[in-house]
Design goal:
alpha/beta, TIM Barrel, eight-stranded parallel barrel, two-stranded antiparallel sheet
């Protein structure tokens, strides 16, 4: 496993992280989740990403129970969670208000069975809460020792700039990490967000690096009946004939390099120095063992040129 710093902080995370979105506490049975987490930890993964809204709290609870069962030292892990999305019908049980953030951190700590969170993300920008209120609250949580570093998720470059500027004016802890969606088919972060994060020393941990499985190549011959693309509408905008054709060509390139398609896709993201980690999901330990092999893979300039030619989607 290879490790990278989270921005200009002293915290290091594994290039390949394990995420709990759409898997643990939901579609994946607890024993399978246990084998996935154990496989990840045995492979050198130290970063596990969760959120309160994942399976409505069950993802955090399952991850916490498994970590305790495995007897892993807390200091050997980087555990993250997030808050923003509604957790009940209560009008205050959502957003980034001081009330909701304080209560959400307490709930995540309780479900995970830990005393602190290494990373805590504001899971979307909240137009109804002043940025100063968010920054002051996160600063307080850091001073209380409940959160070590805080960050944003799916914030625009301008919104990140606002948080950084507000924190600086208040002499408060600044956001240290952003978590956007980023993959070969979703490159909107390249023109502004990655540059903004780099300029302010903010790390980037990306979700959906395999485009919900499309970049594994499993949809090359159509959507399998038990696949997410067949069962949900998560891929309705991405699972197009054009994208499938691109993945088919990329799969051939991956085979030439002795890589699996998923490993090529992950290595392509990690080509960017702004990236701290790619957050991968897994419903089987085999997925974990495949993904971790992308750590340390470096793609040569001629390979990157071939990839760009196939993708044809370089942002302006």
């Amino acid at each position: 496993m290879e490790y990278r710093s989270v921005g200009r902080s002293g915290l290091k995370v594994s290039e390949i992280a394990l995420g709990a979105w759409l898997t643990f506490g939901g579609s994946v049975e607890k024993e399978t989740a246990r084998t996935c987490i154990k496989a990840a930890l045995d492979s050198g993964v130290n970063f596990i990403d969760t959120a309160d809204v994942y399976a409505h709290g069950e993802a955090e609870r399952v991850v916490g129970e498994i970590i305790a069962d495995l007897g892993v030292r807390r200091q050997d892990l980087v555990i993250s969670s997030k808050a923003f999305w509604p957790m009940s019908d209560d009008v205050n049980d959502r957003g980034l208000s001081r009330k909701h953030l304080m209560e959400s951190v307490a709930g995540s700590l309780r479900r995970l069975g830990v005393d602190y969170l290494d990373l805590y993300f504001c899971h979307r920008y909240d137009p109804e809460t002043p940025v100063e209120e968010v920054v002051r609250t996160m600063d307080d949580l850091v001073h209380q020792g409940k959160v070590l570093y805080w960050g944003t998720s799916v914030w625009s470059a301008a919104q990140i700039e606002s948080a950084v500027g507000t924190a600086s004016s208040l002499n408060a802890y600044r956001p240290q990490v952003e978590q956007p969606q980023y993959n070969m088919l979703q490159r909107h972060v390249e023109p502004e967000i990655l540059g903004t994060c780099h300029r302010h020393g903010i790390g980037v941990t990306v979700f959906s690096p395999l485009a919900q499985g499309l970049l594994t190549g499993k949809y090359n011959e159509g959507a399998p009946k038990d696949s997410r693309g067949a069962r949900t509408d998560w891929l309705k905008d991405t699972l197009t004939d054009e994208n499938v054709e691109k993945v088919k060509q990329l799969t051939v390139l991956a085979e030439e390099l002795g890589l699996e398609m998923s490993q090529l896709a992950l290595a392509w993201i990690l080509r960017r120095s702004e990236i701290s980690a790619v957050i991968t999901g897994a419903s089987k330990p085999e997925h974990v063992l495949s993904n971790v092999q992308a750590a340390g893979v470096r793609l040569e300039p001629d390979v990157l040129e071939r990839i760009e030619a196939i993708l044809g989607n370089t942002p302006a």
